Here is the input.
Amino acid sequence: MSSDYESDWVQYISAEGQLTTDGRKAWEQLSDQLKIQFYRWMTFVRLFDRKMIVLQRQGRMGTYAPLEGQEAAQVGSALALTDQDWVFPTYREHGVALTIGFPLTHVLLYWAGRVEGCKPVSNLRYLPPAVPIATQIPHAVGAAWAAKLKKEQTVAVAYFGDGATSEGDFHEGCNFAGVFQLPVILFCQNNGYAISVPFSRQSAAKTVAERALAYRFPGIRVDGNDVLAVYMVTSQAVKRAREGQGPTLIEAVTYRKGPHTTADDPSRYRPREEVKHWSRQFDPLTRYQLLLKNFQLLTDSEEEAWELECKRRIEQAIKEMESLTSPPPTHLFAHVFSDLPPALHKQRLQVKQKEGKEHD
Ligand SMILES: Cc1ncc(C[n+]2csc(CCOP(=O)(O)OP(=O)(O)O)c2C)c(N)n1
Here is the structure.
């Protein structure tokens, strides 16, 4: 990972949990309620994420994409949005989903491989996760274009990783957004790797943010483990977009502590020292808890009570999800082809025979 990785960024909370000079100004602008929301959502998302890994290891959940370490990037940016904004996520944005009000059971159903979890939730402008890398970026740009044509105050946000910025869809999206000055935020969580490929092997550019220069809109690099800085930078981008000043590319520099997915082994490509460095010094939640405690906005007993409440809510949603009747195995063949190709038709018949069912 390059030495430029942790520099030239907007940082409001130091790794030791102290406010920087700009951080102090930002802190004074925010309500105590919002400051506590940052903590509450980051804790909730972390406990949810850890539980998902346990469920996957117990065989109660499918392959899962963990996000521990990215809570500040996801919660900070999501809290800067309103329910009129469109969100175009990847497979790792459960932190964003939960923060903007996506039901927990719904997220669980998605990762359990259930079709119900793929359905959009009415009244929430949160699209189904895009697994093909970067494909959601042109979609977000299109939604922003529609909003502009309809003279709506809506902002569209595309979330993606550093790997996505080397895909054609990213550059086409940026080009279009720049030419038409669209109300879109391109939010990159740069964790330094696209699975095992480090950023230096993905691009000759030193940073993701500098790529915005060619498209003539701002590219802002922010400490992605600093929830206050992420919130402020995203809020400014939202304001610019609503005021008709066009797109912003945000590069939230972060580190995913765990594997790419539960099917990955990062010890094969990430040095142990690097993981330790990020886990100890830059943990977004520890850093923010220190800050809140310095300002007497959080006590140990409040922390304990909130963790218990999060666990209770998570357990309840798991129970609900696991009590729902599973669809028949032939459901595997639904929803992709209206007319099944002959090979799949044959497989479906075999599954049906195995189940010993005439109809499903
Ligand atoms: C178009 C496409 N090519 C390849 C893949 C396989 N793939 C899945 S995740 C991934 C890495 C993505 O890295 P990044 O964009 O940095 O996101 P991260 O998962 O690290 O957040 C790749 C190459 C894919 N899903 N889609």
User: Anything to note?
Assistant: The two ends are 53 Å apart (CA to CA). The first strand starts at residue 86 and ends at 88.
